[in-house]
Amino acid sequence: MKRLLPLAMAFCTLASLDARADDGWSLHGQATNVWQYHPAFRAPYGGAYSMDGGSRSNETFDATLFAGARLWDGGEAYANGEIDQGFGLSNTQGAAAFPSGEAYKVGKSSPYFRLQRLFLRQSFDLGGDSQAVADGPNQVAGSRTADNLVLTAGKFSVTDIFDNNAYAHDPKGDFLNWALIDAGAFDYAADAWGYSYGVAGEWTTGAWTVRAGLFDLSRVPNTTALTRGFGQYELVAELERRFTLLGQDGRIKLLGFVNRGRMGGYDDAVALALATGAAADTALVRRPADRSGVSVNLEQGLTDELGFFLRASLNDGSKETFEFTDMNRSLAAGLSLKGTVWGRKNDTVGLGLETSAVSHAAQAYFAHGGLGLLIGDGALPHYDGERVLESYYDVGVTPWLHLAADYQLILNPGYNADRGPISVLGARVHTVF
Question: Domains in the chain, ordered, with CATH?
Answer without folding.
Answer: 4-432 (2.40.160.180)
